[in-house]
Amino acid sequence: MNKFVRHDGLVAPLNRSNVDTDLIIPKQFLKSIKRTGFGPNLFDELRYLDEGFPGQDASNRPKNPEFVLNQPRYEDASILLTRSNFGCGSSREHAPWALEDFGFRVIIAPSFADIFFNNAFKNGLLLITLSEAQVESLMKQVEATPGYRLDIDLAEQVIHCPDGTTLAFEVDSFRKYCLENGLDDIGLTLQQADAIKQFETTYRQNNPWLFRAPVA
Amino acid sequence: MAGRTLYDKLWDSHLVQQRDDGTSLIYIDRQLLHEVTSPQAFEGLRLAGRRPWRLDSNLATPDHNVPTTLKERSVGIGGIEDEVSRIQVQTLDDNCRSFDIEQFSINDERQGIVHVVGPEQGATLPGMTVVCGDSHTATHGAFGALAHGIGTSEVEHVLATQCLIQRKMKNLLIQVDGELGERITAKDIVLAVIARIGTAGGTGYAIEFAGSAIRGLSMEGRMTICNMAIEAGARVGLVGVDQTTIDYVARRPFAPTEEQWEQAVAAWQDLVSDRDAVFDKVVTLDASEIEPQVSWGTSPEMVTGINGQVPDPASISDEPRRRGIERALEYMGLHGGQNIKDIHLDRVFIGSCTNSRIEDLRAAAEVVRGHHVSSSIKQAMVVPGSGLVKRMAEREGLDTIFKQAGFEWREPGCSMCLAMNADKLGAGEHCASTSNRNFEGRQGYGGRTHLVSPAMAAAAAIAGHFVDIREWSFNPERETA
Ligand code: SF4
């Protein structure tokens, strides 16, 4: 997992609420054997005019010019600004995988679905919850200002806006720690490697039959 | 101090670290891997530059989307016609090779459904913690092992750390006492349990199945019961260790031998709940009242006895329940009050990690012997749970009995249990199935599943509809010998 300390990036507005994980990444792509490579199929049904299937070269597919991420001005966006209840529906971890693979590092919304929230942090995405009014105001500014960027300082827990104002945000201290140190669950557990080894040594002495190769 | 339940003991013996936030680090003895939920975990390891913590704790086999026809199987991985399935199976093969993980590959005789293979090999042992990226991992609890399904991130977590971050569950005791009626099987017990407590009845609990009726079951029967704990909402199902457990495990390839065997057996004696252990909830069932069970709806709790009727929604006052039943009946194409025995059947599937072991096949063959599949049945298939089960059945001549009766005899895999390979129901078709889930579309888009025991499925294939197995006319062995 990449470390997250401070991020300055272009903002794309996805002006709708209740974006579910099926919309984020449709089910046919779950047949993939990869955790990466979902980027081209992020928001597949919104992004393309035809029906997508796994393994296809997305570059030749007809794009929906109306869809926000297809507009040239948002091409390099890494911050997604959206509405309430983002990430609802199925628990698929493919949703954060797709957002991350596309290049998003931060998602800002008034609220997120529970499971998605957990899955996203596990995969190095920073989810920021702001009030409806703050999101509304940002949404207007982003839409009105080509090249609108935000500078997000995780350590200080503030968003620096282009007009010089700042917006404070909350983040759970454990999750913040994981992000800042680039630690996923595995990284954290591995910090306890000595404890695991110690347990394993005693356990092995007491249960030697669990540590043996099969008899051919 | 109050006594501990079997679950408490297993938890305590694997506890590496307890944390302030209520989570614990639990040591994992065995991870079983298959092709569908492992690729991203291996990729994650690779991207992070990590190695598996303990190679010998992992064992892999492809099962979910391997084809079951000899035509495709005889060629190995290259013979899998569906490209996506082929890539998944190939990827498991590649990952096992590159990480040096033991795999029973597609053409290995030991290949099969992970939950059949683990116990068969002795890779599931009493007292272990067993995980797999599959919810039916509960099966392995039949050995007094703490076993449950996990997600892909957790598969990777176990590969990398040999541990899982867990919260302790509560204890639920399901006590089934009394004598089972003739021809009543483990499948009927577990369906009756689910009908009683509901599909969410076990949510948040580890279920221990106990009582004289459970003690009287073979290991295969106990596996059938624990397999479906998840259908009652519980991730874990358990049966305490006794001589039946130990006899089953003895001399299996992964089981300890000689001195270590003695040592292990001594340790396993403690793998039962203490007499004074306290359970958070207790449910009791009288085994003698259990009839052959048949599911009529789209949830495993929608079950009734063979002589029963499909419920009439009009008679149900509880609004959400009534709507649930109405929706299920609409999907199933059934009407309230219809006799279970009058449901028209199109296909019969004998297989899955619930009922594809040798005893299941023997029970089905005994019913089939000397009969022929009804002309109204489009397809009746038997899919052994592993290559070794298949070979054993063939040595006993069971394949001949099935084939002579008009059944298809297939290669091992998950097959029509979840229709990820070519074995599927057509829309609207009714299937008598020995599997564990009757969800909408589970066995194919629009397919209608009725969960039953192997003997009941076999009899339904012959009769063309459900019949009471207790009234079946069995043919003596010599007639077809
Ligand atoms: S047989 Fe069915 S339930 Fe069992 S592991 Fe395979 S797909 Fe899952």
UniProtKB/TrEMBL annotation, chain A:
Pathway assigned to this chain's UniProt record: Amino-acid biosynthesis; L-leucine biosynthesis; L-leucine from 3-methyl-2-oxobutanoate: step 2/4
Signal peptide start-end: none
InterPro entries linked to this entry: 3-IsopropMal_deHydase_ssu, Aconitase/3IPM_dehydase_swvl, AconitaseA/IPMdHydase_ssu_swvl, IPMI_Swivel, LeuD
Primary enzyme class: lyase
GO molecular function: 3-isopropylmalate dehydratase activity
Domain of life the protein comes from: Bacteria
EC annotation from Swiss-Prot or TrEMBL: 4.2.1.33
GO cellular component: 3-isopropylmalate dehydratase complex
Annotated catalysed reactions: (2R,3S)-3-isopropylmalate = (2S)-2-isopropylmalate
Aconitase A/isopropylmalate dehydratase small subunit swivel domain residues: 1-132
Keyword Coiled coil: no
Gene Ontology biological process terms from the UniProt entry: L-leucine biosynthetic process
Family matches, as SUPFAM superfamilies: LeuD/IlvD-like
Keywords: Amino-acid biosynthesis, Branched-chain amino acid biosynthesis, Leucine biosynthesis, Lyase
Subunit structure: Heterodimer of LeuC and LeuD.
Protein family (similarity comment): Belongs to the LeuD family. LeuD type 1 subfamily.
Its job: Catalyzes the isomerization between 2-isopropylmalate and 3-isopropylmalate, via the formation of 2-isopropylmaleate.
Protein name listed in UniProt: 3-isopropylmalate dehydratase small subunit
Organism name: Larsenimonas rhizosphaerae
